[in-house]
Design a protein that fits this description.
Elements: E1 3-5, H1 6-13, E2 34-41, H2 57-71, E3 76-81, H3 91-100, E4 104-107, E5 110-115, E6 122-128, E7 133-139, E8 141-146, H4 154-161, H5 200-218
Parallel strand pairs: 1-8, 2-3, 2-8, 3-4
Antiparallel strand pairs: 5-6, 6-7
Protein name: FAD/NAD(P)-binding domain-containing protein
Keywords: 4Fe-4S, Iron, Iron-sulfur, Metal-binding, Oxidoreductase
Organism: marine sediment metagenome
Length: 239
């Protein structure tokens, strides 16, 4: 009950959320003092989940840690990770800022979680791969940094438009470098997470490129269309 996803966490800490911005545990309504974030839930997981990186999870956790420290500076925050991928503009600065504010980053993921039936606290063991030892922790709450995956109803759209997809289930572009927003189907362009996991900035950039590519077709003085042709279905023909 005290294990939530990052989306649920942001609803709890949001002023317009169910608790009016007061961050409390779902089980008893108390403000948690020790919180753990576990990265790469469902991502970079070859046996249980998807092998790809979901791109946005690391910086989302950095942002959530900063929010917690700003509102609850005495909260102990520990982030369990494989790699922190702070590759965007200003991302490394945010990461270092969160460390200076007291967020602890430990390289290693827990294998299982045990809930104390009396207190509702969560216990776990983690192999600290940096220090080379097993460490035990107890938290009031755990936040799972879940990854991104393609929409389940996207398969129907893909079939209607005769689009290609990657092995991960995302729509495939013509060429990742030369035609990154063009779908193999002429006149169809890709933008956002339909093509791969990405953040808002990359989605907006890709959408602008897709709009520009569509504008090239629409600005042409003449648009070539396939001529309508009749097809005889011999099975239905009564001639």
């Amino acid at each position: 009950e005290n294990v939530v996803t990052t989306l649920e966490f942001e609803r709890l800490i949001c002023a317009g959320g169910p608790t009016d911005g007061h961050f409390v545990r779902p089980s008893d309504g108390r403000t948690p003092k020790r919180i753990g974030f576990i990265q790469c839930i469902g991502s970079r997981a070859y046996k249980r989940g998807h092998p790809y990186c979901s791109n946005v999870c690391c910086m989302n956790t950095v942002k959530d840690g900063l929010l917690l420290k700003e509102h609850y500076p005495d909260t102990e925050i520990t982030v369990f990770y494989i790699d922190i991928r702070a590759v965007g503009k200003g991302f490394e600065d945010l990461f270092m800022r969160s460390k200076k504010m007291g967020v602890r980053y430990l390289r290693g993921l827990p294998d299982h979680i045990i809930e104390d039936p009396d207190t509702g606290n969560l216990r776990l063991k983690v192999e600290n791969t940096t220090a080379g030892r097993i460490e035990e922790f107890e938290f009031d709450m755990l936040v799972l940094s879940v990854g991104l995956e393609p929409r389940q109803d996207g398969e129907q759209l893909r079939r209607i438009l005769s689009l290609s997809q990657t092995s991960d289930g995302f729509l495939a572009e013509c060429h990742p470098k030369l035609m990154p927003v063009d779908a193999p189907t002429r006149g169809v362009f890709l933008a956002g997470c339909v093509e791969a996991p990405k953040d808002i900035k990359d989605s907006v950039t890709q959408a602008s490129a897709a709009a520009a590519r569509a504008g090239v077709i629409l600005s042409a003085s003449k648009i070539k269309l396939e001529a309508a042709t009749a097809v005889v279905d011999k099975e239905k023909c009564t001639c």
